[in-house]
Amino acid sequence: MTAQHMNIEISERLFHFKQPAGTSRGIYTTRRSYMITLKDANGMILGMGECAPLPDLSCDAMPPAEYMEQLRRFCNMLQSTGEIPYDEMRGYPSMLFGIETAVRQWQRNGSAALYDTPFSRGEQGITINGLIWMGTFEEMYQRIEEKLQKGFHCVKLKIGAIDWQREIELVSFIRQHFDSKQIELRVDANGGFAPEVALERLEQLADYDIHSIEQPIRQKQWEQMAELCRKSPIPIALDEELIGINNTEAKEQLLDTICPQYIILKPSLHGGMQGCREWIEMARQRGIGSWITSALESNVGLNAVAHFAAHVYGESLNMPQGLGTGQLFTDNIPMPLQLCGDKLWCLPTFYTADTQHGGQMMFSSIRGKRFYSFCVK
Length: 377
Description:
It contains ten helices and 16 strands. By secondary structure, it is α/β, with parallel strands linked by helices. The longest helix has 18 residues, at 64-81. The chain is globular.
């Protein structure tokens, strides 16, 4: 079946967080996504993708009616030409990612496994970091303990939201109980430091053996960020800085000017799969590391991000990724994903499977359309 013979449907979906999600841009209780569904002439679903822009952050965030209109235009172009209009979609990463996901699934005959990898075959899990949401000192303290008890070996702590000294106490708490061999500690400032105090704070954090810090100062301050990357005792990773940098020349200029130690890529924000491939290759050529992160998508988007990460990194997939757990929403969409310890696994099919993985037995089953699974050590 060619693209011209597919039916493309777009629907709006509002997901509800199990608990309010504190971010640098406020607290989310709901998450709006736009689902692209590809069907054949008989109405059979052969592909589904999620377009999930983040308000006040995505370069293609816009009012719902306007977003739907623009997305429909791109879907019509796909249907009429049989090809994704990559050049025209460079400035619309969340839309591009959703279309790429749906088309890739269609090319795989409807399989949720977008690529053939050890991850998609259930042979290898993807290690992820445990995310500590912003909150009060007491809330964040409790969340750290919960992640450590669940077996996470890499923890990402969002900072810059409460009193700086209290945040340092949180970091100190972790290091008092676990050294860097036991827990890899990442911090994310979300641009929360003023340039004049950033280096001093990085030097304070360096006492606690931090793996890296994301976006210490706000984006679009290239000169100050470049200076921090030269002087910082902690490796710096760029995240928000990459948003809206969509053409090849601008990407090269950013990397060559700032020279970060890492870049962190979210397909929904940083150019879809195609754009992230560009970023990763350019970073590799410059000796810059990278990892991939989800961006509060539902399981449809998370599944696509996970399979893309396993595909694009291949055998070098040895650094904890920033993928979600698939447990954010009360009304999520079932996908063959399973969190076991600090690894995200893909169950190749929705039938009962008993598989031994690194000393852990994973049991899974499907009852009707609902997915149940659990892990036993």
